[in-house]
Amino acid sequence: MKLRPIAAIALRQLYLMRSSPVRVLPMIAWVAIDIVLWGFISRYLNSVTGGGSGINFVSTLLGAVLFWDLFTRVMQGVTMAFFEDVWSRNLVNVFASPLLISEYLTGLIVTAIATSLVGLLVMLILATWLFGLPILSLGLLLIPFLLVLFSFGIAFGVLACAMVLRFGPASEWLVWPIPAMLAPFAGVFYPLSTLPGWMRAVGRALPPSYVFENMRSILAGQGYSGGGLVAGIALAALDVILAGCLFALVYRYAVRSGLLARYSAESAS
Fold first, then answer.
1. Cα–Cα distance between 34 and 132 in angstroms, integer?
2. Rounded Cα–Cα distance for residues 11 and 110 (Å)
3. CA 188, CA 11: separation in Å to the nearest integer?
4. pLDDT tens digit sequence for 209-260
5. Is residue 262 part of a domain?
6. How far apart are the first and last CA of the chain?
7. 267 belongs to a structural domain
8. Are the beta carbons of 185 and 206 closer than 8 angstroms?
9. What pLDDT does 54 receive?
10. Reduced to 3 states, what is the DSSP secondary structure of residue 20?
11. CA 101 to CA 260: how far, in whole Å?
12. Distance between CA 107 and CA 7 in Å, rounded?
């Protein structure tokens, strides 16, 4: 891979945002709304229980919302960068250039990381300033937590791009519900032990479940599972590799079948 083509893909997204500030607003608005809404809900639950439950809902509930929003922003950062090429019918121009698939995907990932870091910064400022979220109490464990969530978001972003490339722009609506469909299995707001057996098995295959299980354990003063974190990181890395391979396979199929050349909303056949 060469750095120049990767930088060109990322630079295109920067130019799009610079020319249209409206594109920047969703990076901040939605995360701000989520943090404020769930922050007040957490504060209300603390006032109702009066602290008698032994649970600080600001730490557990709002912390879970922050981490899950981060995964969502990373995933949507990858897909939105890809959709810009879809909506502008620029895919043929991009892939007609001497650009490697790995370089294109890396450019999308760099864009997603940059935009999601902006959202993460906004979430951290609001959560700590308005609601006193003790996110720094996690210490150095924040690094593997964020690594897992970034990697998993990248994997599902690339997977969503492959799905739209294969089935056409009309399948775009299938992308947006993915975080909501994964949340019950990942144990975002509750331990995996509350789930039935088959859902628990699915949850253990999802890297974020190890983040949320360890986060709740740390906030409850019970320490963390080093083996669980290693498993989460390994699964997230595997997901990224598999998603990249799937995108490459779908791309080759689109080229051989002529799907890429006639790419439109009717090309899902």
1. 16
2. 10
3. 34
4. 999 999 888 877 787 888 888 999 999 999 999 999 999 999 888 888 877 7
5. no
6. 33
7. no
8. yes
9. 62
10. coil
11. 14
12. 7
Helical H runs in the chain?
3-19, 25-49, 57, 63-87, 91-96, 101-131, 142-167, 178-186, 197-204, 207-219, 226-257
* CA 65 – CA 35 distance, rounded (Å): 7
Token look-up 């130019």 returns 15
Number of Cβ within a 10 Å radius of residue 269: 6
Which pLDDT score, from 0 to 100, does residue 68 have? Answer: 94
Q: How many domains does the chain have?
A: 1
Q: Is residue 268 part of a domain?
A: no
Q: Tokens 């990249």: give the residue.
A: 244
pLDDT the model gives residue 265: 43
The residue type of 103 is: E
Has residue 264 been placed in a domain?
no
Pairwise CA distance, residues 94 & 81, whole Å: 13
Q: For position 262, what pLDDT does the model report?
A: 64
Torsion of CA 184, 200, 213, 221, to 10 degrees: 120
* pTM, entire model: 0.89
Structural domain for 127, as ranges: 3-257
108-162 pLDDT, tens digit per residue, is 999 999 989 988 898 989 888 888 887 777 778 889 999 999 999 999 999 999 9
Alpha-carbon distances of 151 from 111, 146, 155, 239, rounded to whole Å = 14, 8, 6, 8
